[in-house]
Each structure stands twice: as structure tokens, then as C-alpha cells.
Amino acid sequence: MLATLFLCIAIHATSANAEPQAKPSQPNVLFIAVDDLASTLGCYGDVVAKTPNIDRLAAMGTCFRRAYNQLPLCNPTRASVMTGLRPDQIKVYDLDRHFRDEVPNVVTLSQAFQQAGYFAARVGKIYHYNVPASIGTDGFDDPPSWNQTVNPKGRDKDEEHLIFNAEPHRKISGALSWFAADGEDKEQTDGMIATEAIRIMREKKDEPFFLGVGFFRPHTPYVAPKKYFDMYPLESLRLPYAPAGDREDIPTAAFAHNCPVPNYGLDEPTLLKATQAYYACVSFVDAQVGRLLAALEDLELADNTIVVFWSDHGYHLGEHNGVWQKRTLFEEGAQSPLIIRDPSQTGHGSCNRIVEFVDIYPTLTDLAGIESPSGLAGRSLKPLLNDPVAQWNGTAITQVLRPADDRLPEQVMGCSIRTHRYRYTEWAEGRHGVELYDHQSDPNEFENLAEDSDERALAVIRRLRPLLRAKASGEIPTVPVNPARL
């Protein structure tokens, strides 16, 4: 079956001799990726976030409030989005493996647009980067995906020595670390990314383009101009609520190896400062998104440009009594922001149907009217863009691989399925624990119904287990995996 899939994909590989011509009516694509962004946006119901530009985009298009990534770690999720395939198909689970190691001839999303005559460019982070170490470089890029790449590097790189690290025994890339910077937005890397993206839009306004714009914040270290920190006074912030015994019914494997100790052992004032810094970065990125949207209007491109806004995965800010950052299969880690605005769509506003990030690829090719490879894992969201309450019957699959450590005697694959009502998760096919949450009565996933499960919970598990295992394997991968980079 996999051989057939790869053969189908290979048929669509880029031909060096091909000279495709795009139709003048073909829409542009502005493909905006944000790094480590939780649903800390006004359009997702966050009452703290100040994100007027992203909220405006959501009002103009469709805000998918229940969109789920395939693996909550930068490299695997970005590779999955760009190939339209699941982690088990591309065999990417860590930060070191490139998807072309497994599927060398796969046609990426931007390549599909290239083959249709589009100019494809990347500014900033679309594929994986080590942040902040690789800012200003190509990172872990895929050269065939682009006709042009731009890698800005701002004053945030020069001022890394000024960053406060709440966990000095860890690198700022993975620690709670932040800096309220002097200067203007356009001096920061993300500000420069917006500037370069606008330049490309201006230069290519008369030909169809696929423009990937990847912002680095709010990935740690949380760096933004000071004015954004001032928008979130510390006295206005609170840590998330969880009942005192919340962790007692949760398997050990559910907690990421990079955050085994609740709140990293930090005190509440420090955690609130980290929260302030995170929200500051969110508002900083929102301002850059506003610049991009304004440029579309100024260049008279808005009526012929599809805008996609997404974050590579979800993010924790202290939920479940002290979970931070990514790498979990809880709702906060698996659910991610996704907004699509198509000038021709007939529906607008929020959509509560369950969708997946593998749906992004077939959606964009469908909207642009171009050919996409056979064997993509997702399906087009166009029906939901035209009618957000259309019949859908969606489920979402998210997985993550844990290394063997002092908590787990072996590598453990966790796999989770989200339906409209339930989340069911199993670790190593249940050998290292099972979770079941009823989102109708327990949206914060405080009560694991798989512990001391009654007959009703067992019936749900029996129904969901085969649906989960049909799309994600709980087996330990046979491909190379770097435990230090999971």
C-alpha cells in the first residue's frame, strides 16, 4: 500500500524541463505560519489576548476552532503540512529527520503550485529551524520547495546576551526566557520578515505567487519590543486553573519529558512574567500580520489572494497544574490555530467541525484549481469555507513519540483521536496508559474516564480504538530517531 502511495506521489515529481504557465485568474496564496502559537487569540475566545489583526482576518474568512496538528513538535508537524501526509507516512518524529529521507520524490505543497506556474517564495520559518540558533540561515529547509528564500536576522539575535533565562541550566531555546526589547518592530527578525514579504508581494504582484511567511515568535525566547509587554500588566494575568488532584489519573507518558516537573519548579511571579512575555510576542506577531494584510489592500491583491494563517502546533501556558510549551496530546497541544480566507468563499466566521492540518494541502490546491498529488492524507475544507456548519463527520489524529528515560523504560508512541465529543489517547497501544475525556462535560480534560471506566466509557473506547489505529501506529518506529531531539 505504501509502495503504491509513493509511486503515485513520484509521478508528480518536479520536472526540470517543464515550463508550466499559470492562468491569469489563478489566485495568489499568502501562507502565514506562526511558531508555537496557542489559541491565545481573541477570535478563539481568549479574553486576555489583544490580536485585532488576526481577529479581523478570522472575521473575513473562516476560523477553524477545532483544527488539530498531526504531531506537536516543529519539524514533524511542518513536514506533515507541507507534504500533506501523516507522520507515519513520512516517518518523521523528531527534529533531525528530513521527510525526503523516506519519500524523496514527494511533491510538497509549494511545489504543486510551482508546477502550476506559480512563483514560490519563503521568508522566515516554514520548515523547521533551531530557534534562535538558526535564525538568519536556511534552517532545515527543503530547497526544491522554493524559487526564492529570504532569511532575515534582526537585533534579537545581536541582543541574545540580554535575554533573561528563568532556567539557566537550560538553553534559551527550550527554557522560559524573555526580553522586552528597545527599538521598533522592523528591527526585530519578525518585523524584517514582514518587510521582506511585502517587498516580494510588490515585485510579484503581476504574476501568481505562493508566498510562505514564517514568523519565529512566540517561540522561546519570548522577545518583542517593550510596548507589547506594556499591553499586559502583570496584575491582570492569572495562571490556568486545575483541580488539586488533576494529575492523579493521567499516565506518566502523557507529560512531556522536557517538562516532567510541574511549572519547572518556578514560583508564580516568575511564571506570570513568562506569561506576559508570551502574550507580548503574540501581539507583536499580530501587528506583523496586520502589515501583511494592509499590504494586500495597498497593492490591490486582496481580492485575488487566499490567506492561510496557522501555527505549527498548540502550546501550554501552565495547564494541568504546570504543563508548559508543546509535545503533549492534551487539547492544548493538539489543537492549533487555523484561519483561511478565500476571496470567493460564501461562508464566514467560526467553524466548529473537526479538521486536521493534513487538510490544508488539498484545500489550497482545490481553491486554486490546480492539480494535487494522489494519496494525500486529508481532504479539502472548501465545503466548510462555503458553509461552516456543513455536514462533515470529521475526526483528528495526533501522535507524539517519547524517549526512554528515568520515567519510561522504553520509547513510547502516544496516539490520540479527537471526535466532536471525545478525546481518546493510548500510549504504546495502551501498555503505558489510556486516556478518555468527554469534551461535552469536561472541556479542560480534568477527568480521565479510562481510569476505573464504566461500561459507557468502555463502549466509547471500543468504538474509537480501531478508528485511531487505522491512521496512527503505536509501535516504536524502525527508522532512525534521535532521543535527544524528540
From TrEMBL:
CDD domains: iduronate-2-sulfatase. GO terms for cellular component: cytoplasm. The keyword Calcium applies. It comes from the Bacteria. Residues 27-370 form the Sulfatase N-terminal domain. GO terms for molecular function: iduronate-2-sulfatase activity; metal ion binding. Keywords: Calcium, Hydrolase, Metal-binding, Signal. SUPFAM superfamilies: Alkaline phosphatase-like (SSF53649). Gene3D superfamilies: Alkaline Phosphatase, subunit A. Pfam families: Sulfatase. Residues 1-18 form the signal peptide. InterPro entries: Alkaline_phosphatase_core_sf, IDS, Sulfatase_N. Its cofactor is Ca(2+). Belongs to the sulfatase family. PANTHER family: IDURONATE 2-SULFATASE. This is Iduronate-2-sulfatase. It comes from Rhodopirellula bahusiensis.
